[in-house]
Specification:
about 210 residues; alpha+beta; TATA-Binding Protein; 6-stranded antiparallel β-sheet; about 60% helix; rod-shaped; disordered N terminus
């Protein structure tokens, strides 16, 4: 429980400490497009997996295109009343900052109709707000993955413990069997010693007859 509280606290710090979303120019299909970017305190794979998981829950499947993952015909009230094509790209911020990434989002109303400040400032502003809140979704997803991984670790530890208990029972059974074998062996040794003495006496008796 203490570990879980530490994780939740860390996630809260993450959410409060990162920068706000901003607009930027991104080249896509050899044309400069206006996009929204934000710094996300998670590895790029975690971000991509979190977004993909959320979109799949909403019924949308992504497709790779020129470094972006594209979700087409997405209806999202957070952005506006229309359906939009969402272009996501997560990149590691730098070689030294493996745990921090830059998330880029371009929004299109279909085909090549990418949204900009000049074409629809409201939707672009909503996209900024969306990227600000998406950090919470990614943090929640990452926490769930940690919980799943930890549950798996607990299951493996439990299974190993059960196997050790089974092994102990098997070893105990073998120990008792070995102890019985040892006791039987001691009896056999005693019986065999008696047999040796018996055979020696017979031998001496036979030798005694030779002298006669």
């Amino acid at each position: 429980m203490k570990h879980l509280f530490t994780l939740i606290t860390a996630l809260t710090v993450y959410t409060l400490s990162v920068a706000q979303s901003r607009t930027a120019t991104v080249e896509y299909q050899k044309i400069n497009r206006q996009a929204v970017v934000n710094e996300i305190p998670f590895p790029e794979k975690t971000i991509r997996d979190a977004i993909n998981n959320k979109m799949e829950q909403m019924g949308y499947k992504g497709k790779d295109s020129k470094g972006f993952t594209v979700y087409k015909g997405v209806r999202m009230p957070e952005l506006g009343n229309d359906s939009y094509d969402l272009y996501f790209m997560a990149d590691r911020k730098s070689r030294k900052e493996k745990e921090n990434s830059t998330l880029t989002l371009m929004v299109s109303k279909g085909f090549d109709s990418f949204i900009s400040d000049s074409s629809d400032s409201r939707v672009l502003s909503n996209a900024k707000n969306y990227l600000d809140t998406i950090k919470n979704m990614i943090a929640a997803y990452d926490l769930e993955q940690q919980i799943i991984a930890q549950e798996d670790a607990v299951k493996k530890a439990d299974k190993k413990y059960s196997n050790l208990i089974d092994d102990a029972a098997s070893l105990e059974k073998k120990r008792k069997s070995i102890e019985k074998d040892i006791e039987d062996n001691k009896k056999d040794q005693s019986n065999q010693q008696a047999e040796i003495e018996k055979q020696k006496q017979i031998l001496e008796t036979l030798r005694g007859k030779r002298k006669q």
